[in-house]
Write a structure and sequence with these properties.
The chain is α+β, with helices and mostly antiparallel strands. It has 3 helices and 6 strands; from the N terminus they run ααββαββββ.
Length: about 150
């Protein structure tokens, strides 16, 4: 499938990818996350994961989903810094993430905070994730967010 090149400025296109990731996690759209990260390696607390199917499976096996089909979270990404090499078609980004959660028995609270370090590549005129590194530095009560045996 050949898509038309994206005319969005590089920094904005990359910001949009970072924002899309948060939306997909919070919507519980793990298939969408697999598509978004299909060309990337995801590096978190476990072994690195690559490929759409493997990334989708990792999210399904890691996150608790509730009756509304979501993990009942809100990922807030801030302090986004992007460095683009237009000639090479590559970019690096750094950002902070704070994850909030609320449930009927759990008042709204921050459950984790950390950093994303991302690499992007432009392919066929479109920016794509090449790598996402997640490092949570502050972890609160994730007992209603992560399945047992995951951190």
């Amino acid at each position: 499938m050949s898509a038309e090149p994206d005319s969005t400025p590089s920094h904005r296109a990359i910001e949009n990818l970072i924002a899309r990731y948060a939306e997909l996690v919070d919507d519980g759209d793990f298939a969408g996350l697999g598509v978004l990260l299909a060309d990337a390696t995801f590096i978190g607390s476990g072994a690195p994961v690559s490929g759409a199917g493997a990334i989708e499976r990792m999210f399904r096996e890691t996150l608790i989903v509730y009756g509304d089909g979501t993990p009942r979270t809100q990922h807030v990404t801030s302090n986004v810094a992007i460095e683009v090499d237009e000639q090479a078609g590559t970019a690096d980004a750094r950002s902070y993430v704070t994850v909030f959660q609320a449930l009927p028995e759990l008042p709204l609270q921050a459950i984790a905070a950390g950093r994303y370090r991302d690499r992007f590549e432009r392919r066929d005129g479109r920016w794509r994730f090449a790598e996402r590194r997640v490092r949570m530095r502050l972890v609160g009560d994730v007992s209603r967010h992560l399945r047992r045996g995951t951190t």
